[in-house]
Design brief:
Elements (H helix, E strand, L loop, with lengths): L5 H5 L14 H7 L38 H11 L12 E10 L3 H4 L10 E9 L14 E9 L2 E8 L12 H8 L15 H9 L4 H7 L14 E2 L4 E4 L5 E10 L8 H10 L3 H11 L4 E11 L25 E10 L4 H6 L12 E2 L4 H17 L83 H8 L3 H16 L4 H15 L1 H11 L11 H4 L24 E5 L6 H13 L3 E6 L5 E2 L5 E2 L3 E2 L10 E4 L3 H8 L2 H12 L4 E4 L3 H6 L9 E4 L2 H13 L7 H4 L5
Parallel strand pairs: 11-12, 11-16, 12-15, 16-17, 17-18
Antiparallel strand pairs: 1-2, 1-9, 2-3, 3-4, 5-7, 6-7, 6-10, 7-8, 8-9, 13-14
Helix pairs in contact: 5-6, 6-14, 7-12, 13-15, 14-15
Bound molecules: CIS-heme D hydroxychlorin gamma-spirolactone 17R, 18S.
The site of CIS-heme D hydroxychlorin gamma-spirolactone 17R, 18S has 25 residues, from β2, β3, β4 and α11.
Length: 714
């Protein structure tokens, strides 16, 4: 602390207290900048009413345009400058507003206001990493999970991912990594994918990436919906309590809806069928009042236990197994309001791991330390200067004052004569605040550092494979099959044989011989008899299992939030359609009537039923299960429809539960699966099949069908 000036002390009572915030505070704050067009005249930016918005000013109707046309020039000039640079990574994203409510235990660990105020407004942005702003949602990639807490003591950003580890250990390698994973520099191919030479070249030369690459080869890399996705702070952070005691923590977002992912073939088909799939589903659910919810959890490690792990807590390629340190829930995140404007909010939001508040602190993780520089730096360029904190979405809800002034795009009209501290001209304001448990100034953890300058990596960061093996061991058989298929597919896109061989022979055997052989067989590449890794890299503990690492460990268990197609054509039984809809809605699922055309379906009893989509407009890849409604004429019509048969085959291939209400031998035969196939339920009434169908839907997929799914041609 600098020496305090007397004017500050004497005027302290005039300082602003922290405001009382509630879940709506940010919404109210944004209202200051919302613009409504209702009843407005069309005017220029200077306020001049526009009489003709269709024609330039010209010398005669067929004559040349006139330079004088200030209305045309202003309009075109603004349009020409509408774009800003996209984020260098995480360019494609979707965001939502909401609030965070801490549980009673949270304040025990941290004095941060966000853990004791009843509710703090938030904005969360989900993203893919590699692709550009217009790329596909469901590509194989890491998902960003960044949350801005507009707390009463300042903004805290928890800028995490949906995977708990990272590709590299030191920020020094981030530009290399990103250059390798991004589209290749000579032809800008491929978009949004890691399946190319430069990525596999880099990661096969950087064994520290093995653990994270394995995560990205799992189905975690294409979540079914953001609501079904876990989130992680990745680095070890610190929480500081009211007494000043600091503890190490790892942050987790646990989805209350459970975890579900797509299947690779499904994800790929969605690139074409609905490239905005994740974004659209979140938007629609929120519009329909179906909020997204997570619990914030922490793994807490006392400072004296820092060295009690067989890995280094500062190494971001490692996680703390939940069996070793359980995740303690400390609060709940609810996302329940869509932004008003994509550009103003989702595009202009500026996250930074450096936005922290009293009660939260960093560690010496060298990846985290590098990030602390990068985010502010990139935002200066992307958002055009140092004043992006004034943008409505970035503006703190708690008041702030300092002596920073001017710069590009400055909005604030600072009053007063003194823009320096100490001063006596403005009575010493704005003034410093001493640290304290509540409403105190920020104070860094008082860590003792006594070291020599050195560019080196700690030996404790040396084991690159134990946790990769832990992850592999913890997957179910189906998940392992998907991982083998993922490496096989990705490497098939690598043109250089020696890169494919390096991955299969030098990296994969250190994770698992089964994995290496599985991929090796499909590439015609032999695998060494023993893992080639050095002892130090290889580590111990290769037989351990952590059940929490399987996606199937947190399946939803019920049908809430699931989308179910009801296939119907003219002649359908209206009563059964109604019965199915009611049962699904009661369980919290969304029924969607899918018909051959968008024309209303005429039921057997003459009633008309509106369809929610067509067979090829809302294809099976957009739903979680399919029910063919009863009514023999309708079923016969669907049996004759190639699109309907394809719908069912594709759903079957993607392990989705299917129910058919009718005698449907011909339909089953045409769809090439059997009445007795797993997860296919047939019966004469809805009541006969619904409970079995719903039970499987709760498990997300018919996992036992995996062995035959590949035989399906769809
Ligand atoms: Fe980021 N990262 N990152 N990152 N990151 C950015 O910041 C960076 C890392 C993450 O929705 C950039 O404003 C470095 C880990 C998310 O706006 C940039 C390193 C994790 C988002 C940047 C990392 C993340 C970003 C690009 C290694 C998970 C999107 C645009 C030292 C814990 C936030 C921007 C949003 C965005 C740098 C590694 C998460 C360039 C240097 C690890 C969710 O500053």
């Amino acid at each position: 602390m600098s020496s305090r000036n007397p004017y500050t002390e004497s005027n302290r009572s005039a300082a602003t207290d922290n405001p009382e915030l509630d879940a709506n505070s940010k919404n109210a704050d944004l209202e200051r900048d919302r613009h409504y067009n209702d009843g407005a005249d069309l005017r220029t930016n200077q306020g001049v009413r526009i009489a003709d918005n269709h024609n330039q000013l010209k010398a005669g109707e067929r004559g040349p345009s006139l330079m004088e046309d200030f209305i045309f020039r202003e309009k075109m000039n603004h349009f020409d400058n509408e774009r800003i640079p996209e984020r260098i990574v995480h360019a494609r994203g979707a965001g939502a507003h909401g609030h965070f409510q801490p549980y009673d235990n949270a304040a025990r660990y941290s004095k941060a206001a966000v853990f004791s105020d009843p509710s703090t407004p938030v904005f969360t942005r989900f993203s893919t990493v590699q692709g550009s702003r217009g790329s596909n949602d469901t590509v194989r990639d890491v998902r960003g999970f960044a949350t801005k807490f507009y707390s009463s003591e300042g903004i805290w950003d928890l800028v995490g991912n949906n995977m708990p580890v990272f590709f590299i250990q030191d920020a020094m390698k981030f530009p290399d990594f990103v250059h390798a994973v991004k589209p290749e520099p000579h032809n800008e191919v491929p978009q949004g994918q890691s399946a190319h030479d430069t990525f596999w070249d880099f990661v096969s030369l950087m064994p520290e990436s093995a653990h994270m690459v394995l995560w990205t080869m799992s189905d975690r890399a294409f979540p079914r919906h953001y609501r079904f996705m876990e989130g992680f702070g990745v680095h070890t952070f610190r929480l500081v309590d009211a007494e000043g005691t600091a503890r190490f923590v790892k942050f987790h977002w646990k989805p209350l809806a459970g975890t579900c992912s797509l299947i690779w073939d499904e994800a790929q088909k969605l690139w074409g069928r609905d490239p905005d799939f994740n974004r659209r589903e979140m938007w629609n659910d929120i519009e329909n009042g179906d909020a997204l919810e997570w619990e914030l959890g922490i793994q807490v490690v006392e400072e004296e236990d820092e060295m009690n792990f067989d890995f280094d807590l500062l190494d971001p390629t490692k996680l703390i197994p939940e069996e070793e340190v359980p995740v303690e829930p400390i609060g709940k995140l609810t996302l329940d309001r869509n932004p008003d404007n994509y550009f103003a909010e989702t595009e202009q939001v500026a996250f930074s791991p450096g936005h922290i508040v009293p009660g939260i602190d960093f560690t010496n993780d060298p990846l985290l330390q590098g990030r602390l520089f990068s985010y502010l730096d990139t935002q200066m360029m992307r958002l055009g200067g140092p004043n992006f904190h004034e943008f409505p979405i970035n503006r703190s809800v708690c008041p702030f004052a300092n002596n920073q002034r001017d710069g590009q795009h400055r909005h604030t009209v600072n009053t007063g004569q003194a823009a320096y501290e100490p001063n006596s001209i403005d009575d010493g304001w704005p003034a410093e605040t001493a640290p304290g448990p509540r409403a105190g100034g920020f104070e860094s953890v008082n860590e003792k550092i006594d070291a020599r300058k050195i560019r080196a990596r700690s030996d404790s960061f040396g084991d690159h494979y134990s946790q990769a093996r832990l992850f592999w061991n913890s997957q179910t058989d189906v998940e392992k099959e998907h991982i083998v298929a993922a490496y096989t597919f990705e490497l098939s896109k690598v043109a250089r044989p020696y890169i494919r061989e390096r991955v299969i022979q030098s990296i994969l055997p250190n994770i698992s011989m089964d994995l290496a052989r599985g991929v090796g067989e499909q590439h015609g590449v032999s695998v060494p008899d023993v893992p080639p890794a050095e002892a130090g890299e290889y580590g111990e503990g290769c037989t351990e299992v952590s059940e929490a690492l399987s996606l199937l460990a947190r399946l939803p268990g019920d049908i809430e939030h699931r989308k179910v197609a009801i296939l119907a054509a003219d002649g359908v039984d209206a009563g059964e359609v109604q019965d199915i809809k009611q049962r699904l809605t009661e369980g919290g699922a969304t029924p969607l009537v899918i018909a051959p055309t968008m024309a209303p379906v005429t039921a057997a009893n003459g009633e008309t039923i509106e369809s929610d989509g067509m067979l090829n407009g809302l294809p099976s890849v957009t739903v979680d299960g399919v029910i063919v409604a009863g009514g023999q004429t309708s079923v016969d019509r669907l049996t004759q429809s190639g699109l309907a048969i394809y719908y069912l085959q594709e759903a079957f291939k993607h392990l989705k539960p299917i129910a058919i209400i009718s005698e449907a031998e011909e339909l089953l035969a045409r769809a090439s699966f059997f009445r007795m196939a797993r997860g296919v339920f047939t019966g004469d009434t809805v009541a006969e099949v619904f409970d079995d169908f719903a039970a499987v839907l709760g498990e997300h997929r018919v996992w036992a069908r995996n062995c035959v799914a590949n035989d399906m041609p769809a």
